[in-house]
C-alpha cells in the first residue's frame, strides 16, 4: 500500500508503525525509546505489543489485504457489500477487523460488529485469533457467542457467533439495534439459519438505512447472490498458488480402499506435508481411523510418525491448526492425516496441508415430511464444494489434490451449488421462529431457495399438534414459551409438560443429554465387550432416557468428589464415556435452568427413582414425542412406525438390546432411514398412556393399521378419557386464571 493509502482518513493506525524498531532487544536503550514511540491501540487505549506488529506482517501477506482500501471505500458508500474469496484468503478474520475500524471511526453511534459462522468451533477460534491480531482481550473488545456459551459483554466491539444465535437474538431484538455492521460468513454452507437471516435482513436494512451488511461468499455463489440482493458492490479475492489436480478413474468404485492406499503411498514417498481426506460419512471416518492407525504402526519409523486426526464438523472438537513452533522443535517429524466429511472445509486452518484426497460423494440427511423421517442419502458433492476443497491447498506452492472420480463425473453428476439445507431439513423449528418474529412484523420473508410447500405444511401441522398455534394460526401462549428454549419444539413441549407432571429436574437432564453429542465413545475394535460391561452399570429398566439420567448423575457425582478435572476425564475414559460431550450437556442444562427461572416456570424437587416419577417422566416425554412412537409387530424387535410403514430395530447400544428385553411399544428420540434403520434413545410406553396424552385429532389422522386398532381398544379402558382430555386442552390452550399462566419476560 502506498503513502496515499496511509493517509486515507479511515486507514487503521496499524499502518503507522516502524517495524525496524522491533529488532532491538528488550533491555537496551534503543528498545526503550522505540516503545515510547509505539502507537496506542484505539480499541483499548494501551500501547501495541511487539506481537501485534509480528502478526501484522503475517496479515499483510494474506491475499485479501491488498483489497482493504477498496473494501473500506465501498463500505462507506454502500449499505451492502459482497466479498467473494477463495478459502484461506483471510476474509473471515480481516473483514470483521476492518468493519470494527469503521465503527470506531463513527464512534459506534450505530453499534458494533457481529460476524456469523455456521460452525461453533470456527466462531470460537476466529474470535481468539482476531483478539490476538487486534491486541485486545478475548471476552472484552472481541468475543464470541455460541449455543450455551457466551464469552462477550455488552461493551464488546466485535462479536463472532453462530448463525443460529444471531437468529435467536432477533426474537428479542428484531431489528438488531446493537449492531452497526452485520457480516454473514460461510454462506456457501446454505444452513437454514443463514438462509433465514439472508431473507429477514432485507427488511431490517429497509428499516435501518444506517445498518451495513457484508456477505462473505465463495466465487460460485456470486451470481445467485447478485440476483437475490440486486446490483451490489463486489470485492473479489483470489489465492496465488496453482494446485495440481489428479483424477483417478475407477477409484470411486471403492473410495474407502483407494483413500487408504493413497494415504500410505504418500507417506512412503517421503514428501513432506499433512494430508486431508474428505470421506462420505462419519462411519467411514471411524473405519479409516482404525485401519490407518493399525497400518501406521507397522511402517518404517524413519519416515516419521503418522498421526491420524478425526474431525467431526458437528461435534465440539478442536480445529485442525498448525503445530506450535516449540512443539515442532522437540518432536520428530510428524505427518498428520485429517479425516473429515462435508462441511469440514472450514475447520482446516493449517498451512502445512500439502495433499487433499476427495472421494467426491457425501451422505446427506434428507427429511421426508410425508413420513416425518430423515433418510441418509449418498450423493455427489457439488462443484462449489469440490472447489473449496481444492482451495485448501491455495497457500501451498506444491499442493496436490487427488480426486477419486473422473472429470466427466465432476462436470455431469455434480451440481454447481450445494443444496440449500432449507430444502432438505425438518422445518418445524424454523417455522416456530418465523411465527415468533412475525409478532414484530418480520414473518413474511422471501427466501433465496423457497422450501417445499409440503415441508411447510407438515411443520405447521406438527406445531398445531404440539398446541403451539392458536385457532388463527398464530403462536399460542404455549408456542411463545416453547420458542424461548433453544431446542427442538418437541423437546420444548416435553419440558413444559414436565412442569405439570412435577419432573422438571429430570426432564432438563434428558433434554441436555439428547441435545449434546453422544456421551458414549466410539469403541475401538476388540473393546466392545469391555465397553458394554461398563455401560451396563448405568442401564435403567425403564429405558434409554432414564439411562441417560443415570450417566449424567454419575458424571456429576464423580466431578463433585474429584479433586481435579483430570480425575473426571480418567473416570470417563475408564467407562468409555466422552468427557467433552458430558461437559457440553452440563452447560446446556445450566442454560435451560436459567430459562426456566427467567420465565418463572414451576420447578419441583428431584424425585428420580420412584415409580411415580418414572411414570411422570414418560408422560412428559409422550406430551412432546407422541408423533415418534413404534410397536414391535412380531415380538422379535421389529418396530413399525405409527405414522408410516417403515420398520426399524432398536440400536445395539439401547438398554433393551443389551438386556434382550424388548418392550411392545416405545417412544424414541431419533430415527433415520438408512442401511440399519436404527431407533435411537427409546423408552417403553403403554397404549393407554399414549391415548391419554396424544391429541385426539392427531390419533384420528393416523393411517389405518393394526397398531391404531390396538390403541383404539386401549382407549376403552380409560373411563375418564373425556375429563383428562378437557384438562389437557385447558393446559395446552392456556387457562383464563392469571395465576396459572406462565409469563415470558
From TrEMBL:
It is an enzyme of class 3 (hydrolase). Residues 458-549 form the Helicase-associated domain. Pfam families: HA2_C, OB_NTP_bind, WHD_HA2. The keyword ATP-binding applies. Its EC number is 3.6.4.13. One of its GO terms (cellular component) is mitochondrion. InterPro entries: DEAD-box_helicase_OB_fold, HA2_WH, Helicase-assoc_dom, P-loop_NTPase. It is found in: Mitochondrion; Nucleus. Residues 1-28 are annotated as: Disordered. It comes from the Eukaryota. GO terms for molecular function: ATP binding; hydrolase activity; RNA binding; RNA helicase activity. Keywords: Acetylation, ATP-binding, Helicase, Hydrolase, Mitochondrion, Nucleotide-binding, Nucleus. It catalyses: ATP + H2O = ADP + phosphate + H(+). Coiled coil: none annotated. Belongs to the DEAD box helicase family. DEAH subfamily. This is Putative pre-mRNA-splicing factor ATP-dependent RNA helicase DHX32. It comes from Nannospalax galili. The gene is Dhx32.
